[in-house]
Amino acid sequence: MTDRIEAAAAELRPLLQEFILWVPDNAPGSDPELVGPVALWHRLAVRDDAGLWKRGDLRTVLLEHVPKAVEDPEAAAEGLVSAIRSYLTFLSSTERLAPGSASLDALLAELDDIEDDFVDAMEDILDGNPWDDDEDDEDDEEVDEEVGESLGDFEPFADEIAALPTVRLRSDAELAEAARGVALIAQARDLALWVGTGRKVGAEALLSDDEVSEAVRALGLPDAQYLWNIWNLAIDLEFLAPDGDDTVSVDPDTSAWPFEDDEDALDVWTTGLHSIDYGDPELDDDDLTLALSGLTRALLIQLLLHSGSRTLADLRVELTQAVSEYDDLGLDAWAAAGDPLASVVAWLSGYGMVGVDDGVISLTPLGTDGVVHLLDDEDIEVDARPAIDAMTALDLLSLSSDMTDEEADAEFAAWLALRTPTQAASELLAAAAEDETDALVRVQAASLVGSLGDAAVPAWHEAAKEPSLRPYAATHLTQMGVEGAPEPTPTDVHWLILDMWTIANELGRAEFVASLHEVETQKLIGILDGIWKTRHPHLEELLEAIAEAHPDKQVSKAAKRALFKARSGS
Questions:
Q1: How many CB atoms lie within 10 A of CB 104?
Q2: Quick one: where's region Disordered (predicted)?
Q3: From CA 57, how far away is CA 239, in angstroms rounded?
Q4: Which end of the chain is less congested by CB atoms within 10 angstroms, N or C?
């Protein structure tokens, strides 16, 4: 998301929150969540004033922009026009329609006129027809040129980020413990508890001046602007939520923060991760504020590109240059802010993402994990893996499939160095037993454990008790000549074949067909005549795939016959 979009979204947030409060009593059939993208496109591509709606605006937004960005066309087809009708009524009834706007009747009439066209557009998308033509492409280019490359965009650095050495992440347990100590989340909790249940909010301002002063004093916050940032964070974290036309309430679970469960604690922290934008400097002049929009993300980018640590002095030089290139008012804004990095560093420190020591600012483990999340949200490639000492056996097995053989061998060697071969074998086979449907992890685990020799014998004996691992245990123990080893049965052999077919099938049709051609036709038919008895989780889908993909009619018939027997149990 570009900084210009983020600034517009921040501007619209209070208005949309009030609309959400207005809906239950005034338009209970509407879904206010559908309105946000429409209001955002109107503000970005049509009008500088969110309250100014003129004739033609609805047509431009709903028919030219929304179809190219809609995430759920089915929901939009069913409810978006109704939601926009309610939103326009809200703007009019609360005197939010700016002077110069068309009348509410005229806007609703225009909405009625284009409703069928909008629904048709959503149905085209659902049918797989692209909502695009040359004119749309031109409009896209105009908007892209208008928005431009922004200060906090990650995309311009995508190649540099992809070329970085492996970024190592700490365990969820460690990250969750750090998240529990995040000061800003604690402040958001305290503010939500201060708000309480059923607190009245105003139409013009959510809290009165007296309430703001009371909250700032009671919670020990520095000023009103900081209070509103914490308020927005509490909304983001779902500690606060509207519960009526003009009331907000604390969520009942809020008082339990910090949550004991690691996954729950990390979910809360990640939910509020995009609050980092609240660290951008807030100036009296909106244009100057916009010129510094994205500064927090820009700082994170620089830290990531410099191995997670940099002096504040160097950052100031780098970011001053970036700001001057991003906006003509950049240097004026930088000067007006005094110390533009002060609010950025304060917010990132408060969210547990950076630490500062003797003029050097560094990403914390939580901050590194957060940056990786942000990159993932933007579909930007980064090589991120758990730190070796935080890597579980399942992590190792899952990640190995995406590595070269050399990388996988090096990772395994480093992981193995932290435990005995006997422990390693036990951990790997236990991880392989977690999901019976994951044939690739199972095969990888068997291969790695097989390389550990006699030290793995106890783990193989234990694995023989697991149906999904018994075929591998029996095969390896027999090959090793271990006394009393279980002999592989025909069912074991069939299971191993089905695992290999599963992996080939997951690679694609060509690879799957190639794996089938490795077996002589009559032998393959013989396998199919008996394999239907094996209770493998992918048996039926594999038999269906063979029946469909194999060019030999005899094989196809044998697969269909086996599928019938598997389904009927005889």
A1: 16
A2: 125-149
A3: 36
A4: C
Give me the phi and psi of 54, to 5 degrees please.
-110, 170
What per-residue confidence (pLDDT) applies to 110?
87
Neighbours of 199 (CB within 10 A): 17
- The two tokens of residue 27 are 């338009």
Instruction: Find all residues with CB under 8 Å of 368, minimum gap 6, and list them.
Output: 167, 168, 169, 304, 308
226-268 per-position pLDDT tens digit: 999 999 999 999 999 888 778 899 999 999 999 999 999 999 9
β-partners of residue 167 are 384
Residue 44: closest CA among 88, 17, 90, 7? 7
CB count within 10 Å of CB 282 equals 16
b/e sequence 112-123, b meaning 16+ C-beta within 10 Å: eebbeebbebbe
Instruction: Name which of 172, 187, 202 is nearest 264 in CA terms.
Output: 172
pLDDT at 374 over 90: yes
Consecutive H or E run containing 48:
none
Rounded Cα–Cα distance for residues 499 and 492 (Å): 11
Half-sphere exposure of 130 (CA within 13 A, CB side): 5
**Distance in angstroms (rounded) separating the CA atoms of residues 378 and 279:** 20
DSSP H helix total and E strand total for the chain: 30, 8
Taking each helix axis from N to C end, the angle separating 209-219 and 224-236, rounded to the nearest 10 degrees, works out to 80
Q: Tell me which residue of 72, 38, 77 sits closest to 58, measured CA to CA.
A: 38
Rg of the Cα atoms in the chain: 30
pLDDT band at 441 (very low <50, low <70, confident <90, very high): very high
- Bridge partner residues of 357 (DSSP): 360
For 43-65, how does the pLDDT look when each residue is reduced to its tens digit (9 = 90+)?
A: 888 887 888 898 888 988 898 88
> 228 with 219: CB under 8 angstroms?
no
Residue-level pLDDT at 138: 44
Q: Which long-range contacts (CB under 8 A, 24 or more apart) does 458-463 make?
A: 458/422, 458/425, 458/426, 459/422, 459/425, 459/426, 459/428, 459/429, 460/425, 460/429, 462/426, 462/429, 463/429, 463/432, 463/433
Say if strands 360-363 and 354-357 run parallel, antiparallel, or are unpaired.
antiparallel
The pLDDT tens digits for 171-195 are: 999 999 999 999 999 999 999 999 9
Cβ–Cβ under 8 Å, residues 350 and 130: no
Please name which of 225, 345, 237 lies closest in space to residue 289, comparing C-alpha atoms: 225
b/e 220-248 (16+ beta carbons within 10 angstroms → b): ebeeeebbbbbbbbbbbbebbebeeebeb
d(CA 544, CA 567): 12
Q: Cα(277)–Cα(7) distance, rounded to whole angstroms? A: 9
CA–CA dist 389, 518 (Å, integer) = 41
Per residue in 353-373, pLDDT (tens digit) is: 999 999 999 999 999 999 999
